[in-house]
Write a structure and sequence with these properties.
Number of strands: 3
Largest sheet: 3 strands, antiparallel
Strand order of the largest sheet: 1-2-3
Number of domains: 1
Shape: flat
Strand content: 15-25%
Helix content: 55-70%
Radius of gyration: 15 Å
Order of helices and strands: EEHHHE
Distance between the termini: 22 Å
Structural class: alpha+beta
Length: 100
Amino acid sequence: MSVVTKVRILGREYTLKGNVDSEYMNNIALKVDERVEEIRKLFPAGDELQLVILTTLNLIDEIEQLKKNPPVNFPGTSEADISLKTDRLITMLEKGIIGD
């Protein structure tokens, strides 16, 4: 079942389509927006593309670090769990984002 949700990232509205509920998609979009804003504070002269690329690099680095050193006994941090979540997010990006 596909769910369609409108979210805002960097002041722009996007329509996401995925197999997860709207609350999950909104939470992910909010976290992305927060992370981009954190990077913007460090690089105020950066344009949106640069900010998004730096944010993506930071997020992927965090994922890779968690794969190598998952917190002990923390649910959802096995390599399989992280891989599944990463694949789910990639699918949302590849098939679900339609810029409005």
